[in-house]
Predict the 3D structure of the following.
Amino acid sequence: MHHRWLTIALLVSSLAGCRAEIGDPGGGDGNAGDPAAGDPGAGDPTAGDPVAGDPAAGDPAAGDPAVGDPAAGDPAAGDPGGPVHDALPVPFDEGVVFSTTLYVAEGGSDTPTAGSQGTPFATIGYALSRAGAGTLILVADGNYPPIGSHSPQGQPGAPIKVQGSGGAVIDCAGGAMGGAFSDPAYVVLEGITIQNAQPHGLNIDDGGSYATPGHHLILRNLTIAGAGNGCNCDCIKMSGIDDFMVLASDVSGCNQGEIIDMVGCHRGFISGNFFHAPMANGVQTKGGSADVLIHGNRFSDIPQRSVNAGGSTGAAYYRPQDTAYEGARIQIVANVFERSGNAPVAFVGCDTCVFANNTVIDPRGYVARILEENLTLGPGHSGYFVNNLVVLNSAAMNGYSYVNVGANTEPSTYTFGWNLWYALDNAGFTGPVYQGGVPAEQSGVIQADPELDNLAGGDYQISATSPAIGAGQVV
């Protein structure tokens, strides 16, 4: 798994008090392929998303990863504003001492008297059916059937944790999902590989009870290698999940859908992951999703939108039902985007959303999009594209403009500024030209070599003399 990169400029005590570098000179491998760029057109193929459900939960209880109001600043005064964080969230299972341990291994027995280290259960699903609050399920190396559908109920200080040994593989070759959790509470899934799943790799939801979301779920150190059967299929599908984390995982190959698709999910933290080579989009936050921090991830070869901040959802699936936005306070901070196809970020009906201190390498389409694809809600507004480091080949952008502005939007409320732009193939590059009512770039650094350590090798650490240092604004 690829977790060498550093979340440089933002991995400090707070997003509001970070150093004023530009971009994220974190390292990483970056050896994935290069799908051709393309534009799925206006609209979200999951509009009305009738599939209720999906996993990914953790506990940003140690701090709300998206408190504050990114519109609080005064861009005209050189202050893009921004939310304030004292620290990154702390996982709720940190330091937990479990009261019960159950064991799962190939060749075990799914009987009530099994579950010990000497006589383990045979399947993860059976172990979950026997697990109460405070249970640790240890899964040995081996191949296992899908988990099945469960509603595990841990408690604060006493979660239910499924921990694979690193070689535990759920093989869904028969055509099932890796697992489905309905209304989970305080659950951790860690150290498992899921392969050949359909339609989704994991599906976690609120059981259709919109007023009582599932909550406190951590997905950590997972490998999901492909999911789908040709439909709109997601590697991780979440609906109505609050206080969740997706951490240090390697997810790729999702068929026609998203790497993570969220409908009405809140207070999430997605960090330290390697997301690469799906057939469509990366991370999507729609249907009333809010307060999600997407931090320190590597997005490689995403053919469509690497992050869809917002989206288009049928009104029946909004969470909460009276939502006024597709997405709100979605913060995309200190990530690496390599060879993004359609755009690293699309603001799609997103209210006060932020794309800051990211490193964008060799984009193949737009650098950002401002869209409105759900006309039943008010247009997104007050977005920020600031402190980013963009290294591009203008020829590879295939004639795309830098920022695409769709109809029924409010581009004048967006702030673009303090970004470093460097064209590898055009020494006379004079910076991006914004059209469609987007305000001009504020205090951009244009055609200054950011002095990356090993651009070709995918290591984007900046040198001590880089012009990116000190060129950004405090966010």
In short: Helices lie at 124-129. The chain has a mean pLDDT of 84. The first strand starts at residue 100 and ends at 104. Residues 124-129 form the longest helix (6 residues).
